[in-house]
Amino acid sequence: MELLRNVSLAEFTTFRIGGKADYFCVARSVSELQEALAFARERALPVFILGGGTNVLMGDDGFRGLVVRIEICGIEWGGVVRVYAGENWDSFVAETVARGLWGLENLSGIPGTVGAAPIQNIGAYGSEVEEVIDWVEVLDRNTGDIQKLSRDECGFGYRDSIFKKSEGKDFIVTRVAFRLRKDGAPNLKYKDLAEFFSGKKLPTLSDIRRAVLEIRARKFPDLKTHGTAGSFFKNPIISQEKFKELKKRFPELPGFLFKSGVKVSLAWILDKICGLKGFEKNQTALWKDQPLVLVNQGGASAREISAFADNIARLVREKTGIEIEREVNIV
Ligand SMILES: Cc1cc2nc3c(=O)[nH]c(=O)nc-3n(C[C@H](O)[C@H](O)[C@H](O)COP(=O)(O)OP(=O)(O)OC[C@H]3O[C@@H](n4cnc5c(N)ncnc54)[C@H](O)[C@@H]3O)c2cc1C
Fold first, then answer.
1. How much is the pLDDT for 258?
2. 36 and 105 share a domain?
3. CATH at 299
4. Residue nearest to ligand 1 atom 51, measured at CA
């Protein structure tokens, strides 16, 4: 394992923002990860675990500690498919579809690694990864213990899990096990997908993957040309009472029952209530085709992105009384 000094983090994130890490290394095996943690422990350095860098906003001042990029790879196919954390998420999904395994097709095209998928319980097009996770193997960064957490123990919620809370923040995901099915059926409950296949014959597994990729390509900026971490904010989940109150003022506000409340479309709020679609300031903008997505148009700093996001949150609060939460991890 090679330890590097003063490494620019901007190159390792899709926002293309971030100062330097004092120390940086790549872990290609669990033992390299343990070695990196031991190095940091001996020097009392904070450790930041990085996957594909697609859901982080790194600070302009960088990271005073060790950044470990997880590249532990390998897939064990079987009744339960066990995948190491550093595998690329979408390459893995493509392979499951090619093998005729149902369960991940609606999550096609999400960038990042397999190890990060449980962290925020990635979701898209009417599906969340928790639905097919069997267990998650973790390494405790303090004790070095390796253990398997059942799906229930992961405490999954909407873009949430134990790994984002104090109980789970010391866990590093090393492997994820998925229970996929040979005899699945299309999940077309999400509006865009239902519309895509409306009037057509029942889609196959690969039809669904193709459709999801096509829809995503229309909505998200191309990572080759724009810096972004995808949706910067979560869609708010509000109480039924609050939803009724907003519906009186904004009768067309889309919302549907979700877990403990009503999930409302923040993109709609930003566009129709706040009039912010395509809003831009300095080098930061809300993406024209999906206002939840913040883009670095070139040269934006983390401070500028944060100030821009705070401004958006303030406007939403003033217009609707809703406190929106960030989805992106701020480092
Ligand atoms: C264009 C675009 C579209 C996106 N679309 C979606 C979408 O549809 N749905 C969705 O849910 N997300 C979406 N995202 C967000 C992102 O792709 C996911 O959150 C993804 O799972 C992040 O993976 P990563 O490997 O890049 O994680 P990183 O960004 O590297 O890390 C994210 C967080 O997870 C932690 N982490 C990473 N790996 C590990 C590990 N092995 N163990 C412990 N902690 C770890 C990091 O410390 C950090 O806090 C999108 C992002 C972009 C840029």
1. 83
2. no
3. 3.90.78.10
4. 230
Q: How far is the CA of 246 from the centre of ligand 1 (A)?
A: 32
Q: How far is the CA of 208 from the centre of ligand 1 (A)?
A: 22
pLDDT single digits (tens) 284-300: 999 988 999 999 998 99
Distances (CA, A) of 34 to 1, 44, 167, 172: 11, 15, 20, 11
Taking only the tens place, the pLDDT of each residue in 155-193 is: 999 999 999 999 999 999 999 999 999 999 999 999 999
SS3 228: strand
Q: For residue 164, give the ligand 1 atom closest to its CA.
A: 49
pLDDT exceeds 90 at position 116: yes
pLDDT at 260: 78
Any ligand 1 atom below 6 A from CB of 86 = no
Residue 209: pLDDT band with limits 50, 70, 90: very high
Q: Are residues 85 and 120 in the same domain?
A: yes
Q: What is the pLDDT of residue 152?
A: 97
- Between CA 113 and CA 28 the distance in angstroms is 13
Please give the tally of structural domains in the chain.
3
Ligand 1 centroid, distance to 242 Cα (angstroms): 30
Buried b vs exposed e over 236-246: b needs ≥16 C-beta within 10 Å? bbbeeebbeeb
Residues annotated as catalytic are: 159, 231, 327
Residue 270 shares a structural domain with residue 290: yes
Instruction: Kindly state whether residues 34 and 87 are assigned to the same domain.
Output: no
In percent, how much of the chain has pLDDT > 70?
Answer: 100
Q: Judge if the beta carbon of residue 111 lies within 6 A of ligand 1.
A: yes
Q: Is the CB of 230 under 6 A from ligand 1?
A: yes
- The answer to whether 176 and 85 have CB atoms below 8 angstroms apart is yes
Identify the CA nearest to 293 among candidates 315, 303, 278: 278
